Amino acid sequence: MHKHYKNPSLWDNILQFRPSGIRVKPGTYFPALVAITQTSIVGSRKRFLTLRECARLQSFPDTFQPDVIEAQAYKQFGNSVNVETVKIFAKYMFGDKNILKKYSVQSSIIPVNFLEIVKEFPEEIIENKDIVNANDLDPKKNLLVSLVKNDTIKMLLDGSINIYYTGKKFPSTVALNHLYYFMPYRKGKGIRDLYYIKVARIGSKHEVHPESDPNDLRLVFEIEFVNQLFSDYKPIRLAIWETFTDTTLEKILQIS
């Protein structure tokens, strides 16, 4: 019974008759609606939950008209899912930025410590020595998608650079020693071109820009163009910090 009642009674609670007995809940919340004839009883009012109250518990608007057959309507509300909950999941699935930011676990991902990595791997983290060509791709290999500035993508495409520096943060959830393929994500468009990661190491932009701070460490990819994987850019969701997606070539090839 509810601890605040001096003379507790079953009628102070929400009641539900079940084959196993009577389920009694405090009047502060309702048990789940069920798709059988076990409609909850509002103890304080000594009556069953009304259809309109069922609709409101499931976040249906007051303009919603339930089935004219009362027993059928109760079952339908028991089978339904809360409307507002469905909205949240739909927005999450289809990339609503505010919902992603609020509910995504990606905000808890810790960035890698570049100083610790360079102590462990003073030269290369990985060095892939395979010869890669467009006719011999391994779909099981790991692939990293990264948001890249448009001017950098243009330089990659015209061959003026074959090296890519990540930002100041890189997610610790990515297995660096398994990286093999790389695809730059063009903002507003998506992914198209496939690169092979020859070397992954820790470095700084001071290597190519003397005015840059040599202590501003980044993850560096020495890459080689393989081929244009799609005829046009394909949009995908950047799952980590809206900047990276850690996946495999096989999953990328499944994009329609």
Name its key features.
Archaeosine Trna-guanine Transglycosylase, Chain: A, domain 4; 256 residues; single chain; 21% helix; elongated; 2 domains; alpha+beta
- Care to count the β-strands? 11
Described by strand count, sense and barrel closure, the largest sheet is:
7 strands, mixed
Poorly predicted parts? none
User: Percent of residues in beta strands?
Assistant: 25-35%
Give the radius of gyration. Answer: 28 Å
Fraction of helical residues: 10-25%
Plain-language structure description:
With 256 residues, the protein is of the alpha+beta class. It folds into two domains: 10-83, no CATH class; 109-253, Roll (Archaeosine Trna-guanine Transglycosylase, Chain: A, domain 4). Helix content is 21%, strand content 26%. It is built from seven helices and eleven strands. The chain has helices spanning 51-57, 70-79, 83-93, 97-103, 114-120, 150-157, 249-253, and strands at residues 13-18, 21-26, 41-42, 47-48, 124-127, 142-148, 163-165, 179-186, 193-204, 217-228, 244-248. Strands 5, 6, 7, 8, 9, 10 and 11 form a seven-stranded mixed sheet that branches. It has a four-stranded antiparallel sheet with strand order 2-1-3-4, with no helix packed on it. A hairpin with a 6-residue loop joins strand 8 (179-186) and strand 9. The protein is elongated. 17% of the residues are buried.
